[in-house]
Specification:
alpha+beta; 344 residues; globular; 11 helices; single chain; 4-stranded mixed beta sheet
Length: 344
């Protein structure tokens, strides 16, 4: 699901209301009658997305680019002077050009002082120990509202929807965060925790554990919480680490990151030779997944699609990018058990 954040260069919004708008927009798309009703025009796309591995990608837009995405199917929410639009989830290969051209990077905003929580508003708490840009946090609070919707009693969910899904995004003190998450929080595996307004104001608590009755009803069983997986840490011989699983990278996201990084390193010299040594560029790799495999991988550079780079970059990647060549041609995978592995 693309979440487009309106961040005007001359007058950027405050961070907290922008996150609150993004959180409300994400759940608004999921529970919109066009998505929730079996005959709704969005139902097939949203149902397929929820039944798969849910992902959200935040992009920033301003000016004409912000106006352009208003014509795409989705919901825009405004909180104060901040606006965010959650769009219908598409397959990566079907993402409209109006969205593809938007930047993923550069979405950070300074911390602000949001003030007291409005009466009755659900609170989405952000892990104070995990640094996140506004774009990353927007995706996380979008996940949180979906989880909260799946756990709310039907009458509370109906009232929340009727009010326009108002919520409050806050960052607690580290000591208070420990009261929010169940048990340990290895490697910051929990990045957000939702708190229902049925709790005592000012006393954060974690969401209730899912129960069979939590998913009754036509709309809510489309928003069941995903099963959490144990987080792991990948470590290189040089000591570099990356979190895998939980709320860290998924294995497929690591594959995509490796492909994007390899493509960037391969093309860097070609790009800087023509655009200058101080030039910068972004590379996005995204896969089209099924339950057990990735069927397609797309690599996109945020560069004008003109010659000669449009010819030279794909040619260089096909010839020199080790990750791309391995994915393209395939490599045998041997799996074995070694009881002495931990000692090496």
């Amino acid at each position: 699901m693309p979440i487009v954040l309106r961040i005007e260069k001359a007058a950027p919004p405050a961070r907290t209301p922008l996150l609150e708008a993004a959180a409300a927009a994400a759940i608004a798309v999921c529970l919109d009658p066009r998505a929730a009703e079996p005959e709704g025009e969005w139902h097939a796309e949203v149902s397929a997305w929820i039944d798969g591995r849910i992902r959200k990608v935040s992009r920033r837009a301003r000016g004409a680019h912000w106006e352009a995405v208003q014509s795409l199917p989705g919901v825009t929410v405004r909180v104060g002077d901040a606006e965010a639009r959650a769009l219908l989830p598409w397959k990566v290969v079907e993402t409209p050009q109006e969205v593809r051209r938007l930047q993923i990077t550069g979405s950070d905003l300074p911390a602000d002082e949001p003030g007291p929580v409005p009466a009755g508003a659900p609170v989405l708490w952000i892990n104070p120990d995990v640094p996140m840009t506004a774009g990353k946090a927007a995706a996380q609070v979008g996940h949180a509202t979906m989880l909260l919707a799946a756990l709310l009693p039907p009458d509370e969910l109906t009232a929340w929807q009727a009010a326009g899904f108002p919520c409050a995004v806050r960052t607690p003190e580290p000591a208070d965060w420990k009261l929010l998450v169940p048990g340990d929080d290895p490697a910051g595996a929990w990045q957000t925790a939702a708190w229902s307004p049925s709790g005592t104001p000012g006393s954060p608590r974690s969401p209730p554990a899912p129960s069979p009755s939590s998913h009754s009803g036509r709309r809510r069983d489309r928003l069941r919480p995903a099963r959490r997986r144990r987080p792991f840490v990948a470590r290189t011989d040089s000591g570099a680490t990356v979190d895998v699983g939980g709320d860290g990278f998924s294995p497929v996201e690591l594959l995509e990151a490796a492909l994007a990084a390899c493509a960037a390193l391969t093309a860097e010299q070609l790009i800087t030779r023509r655009a200058g040594a101080d030039s910068s560029f972004t590379v996005v790799a995204a896969g089209e997944e099924t339950a057990h495999e990735v069927r397609r991988l797309d690599v996109t550079f945020d560069l004008p699609a003109d010659q000669p780079l449009a010819t030279l970059i794909p040619r260089a990647i096909a010839r020199e990018c080790k990750v791309s060549r391995t994915v393209e041609h395939g490599a045998p995978v041997a799996v074995r058990l070694d009881p002495d592995l931990r000692q090496t």
